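Chapter summary example.
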Amino acid sequence: QVQLVESGGGLVQAGGSLRLSCAASGRFFSINAMSWYRQAPGKQRELVAAVTSGGSTNYADFVKGRFTISRDNTKNTVYLRMNSLEPEDTAVYYCNVHISVTGNMYNDYWGQGTQVTVSS
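The structure predicted for these 120 residues follows.
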């Protein structure tokens, strides 16, 4: 059984920083891409950033230059460092990880979500 556990959300003032973590645990064969999404009230879930197994990264335009995604393959963990936070960044942040349990195919797994609130 695969589990993703997120941590690091909270309340911060505009201009502040937070770091989110998402750790995968359980029995599985390998991990491919790891991503962060967010969902604000009344809005659809949107991709924030992604990192491949080889370390290539991709960012949404609205976070470029402010957020950094990274991963530690030894810990099966993905991070999201968020700097220069703005009230518009307020949302529930979810990690998404492509995991192969058997080695045959990859499936999407989601974290439980962590609330990030940025006050003005």
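To summarize the output: The CA atoms of residues 37 and 47 lie 4 Å apart.
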